Each structure stands twice: as C-alpha cells, then as structure tokens.
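Form 7-S
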Amino acid sequence: MQRYAATPRSFRPEHGLALAAGLRFSYPVSPHWALEIAQEVADLQPGVRYRIPNSSGSSGVGARAVLHTGVTVRRLNLWQISPRMQLDAALTGAYAWLARPYRSDYIGSWFSPQQTQPTFSQPIAEWTTRQRHRATVLLGGEARLQCTLDTRHSLLLSLGYNRGLRTLVESRSQQLLYLDDHGQVQSGGFVLRNRGSYATLQLGYGWQLVNPAGKVTTHTPRYGRLPALSAEPEAPPVYFEPVEE
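Output:
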C-alpha cells in the first residue's frame, strides 16, 4: 500500500486465510537435485482494512481463484533429521492468471449516507478497485519437511512464499477523511496494489510412481544395490589326469 498526505498506517491491506491446493510431478536428476512441474490454485482476496486499538473494519471486493503453472528446482536431502525425516528446499517460477476477471471499477466505501463526519472507529472512505492485468509471473521459494511412511509413500509439510511481478488488482482512494490523535479531521489517500503474492502452509501426500527397490541410498545401505557382477564369462574348469609310465 502506498499512502499519501501523511495517511496513518491504520489503513492497511486486508490479510486473511484462504485455501490453496496443488499437484506436482517430480523427477530426480541426481541423488540431491530434482526438477518438478506443478499446477496450483489459490484465492486472491484484495481488500482494505482500518485498524486502531479496540476497533477494526475491513472491506474487500471478493475472492478470485488464481491458477498458476510452474517449474521448481528442488535440493533434496538438505538436512537428514532422522532416517525417516528430511528437509528439502526449492526455488520456483510460475505463470499465474486469474480464473475469472474482476468487475471493472468496483466502488468500496466505509460510511453510511447519514454520516457527515468521521469518527475514531468509522472513517469516511471511498475507493475504486479495477483489474490492471489478467496474468503475472510468480517467483518464490519453499522449505519442505518429508516424513517417509514406507518405500513409496510419504507425508509432506511445506512452507512457501510466491511473489507476483506485476499488479493484478489496484484499489485507489477517491475520498478519505479520518480523525487524528487530537480529534482533528484530516484528509489523505492511498493506492493498494495486489500482485497475487501469498504465503502457504500446506500438508500433502507423496507417492513414488517408480518402484525404488533397486535405488541406491547413502542413508539406508541395507537397501542398496549389490555389487555388479563381471560381464565376462567364467573360464571352464581344467582337469588334469595322471600320466601312466
């Protein structure tokens, strides 16, 4: 949020919990690195909040689904916590777009027609929200805790953050009147730009498609592959008979 005319930080972006889900396919290219492709969806909920001690209010323009398809480079076995638990880290890049466009020039407000003066708990505010772009690029990172259940199944707990590179939805104030700490009426303004950025805490399930029975691992040598046998055929045994004189 960009504030004008000494607008206080009581006016802030609206933050809230929303749902997100994803499906990923991972291909290990080495024992410590993997490439992934992913399709994910998350809610975008732009809005404005006014918050002071013992009072708060908010107004949004509704949630919209943001779809994004991306590529991930993952560092495997970054920290082997235990034989069944390991920590991975990843860098991600994705192309994201709004599943449905936002309504053009949505008008939000925080006052009733009968209100002529702001109060400490109820400022007079009006703003216009419009969609600036339908799509953006997301860059982010992730830390993932993997708990192995057996050779092919695992539980995944990940914490990630994605940041958009350009504005999807913009809210710009048309009128803003509020009371300062001395009870005087002040005017201000703001511009709130939502880039589709969000943080996630996700619980997932991992299923290894390829049977890892022959996979060599440094942490579980009892499952390792037996030494390769020589490809050369063995020479037939040679028998010697005693010579009669």
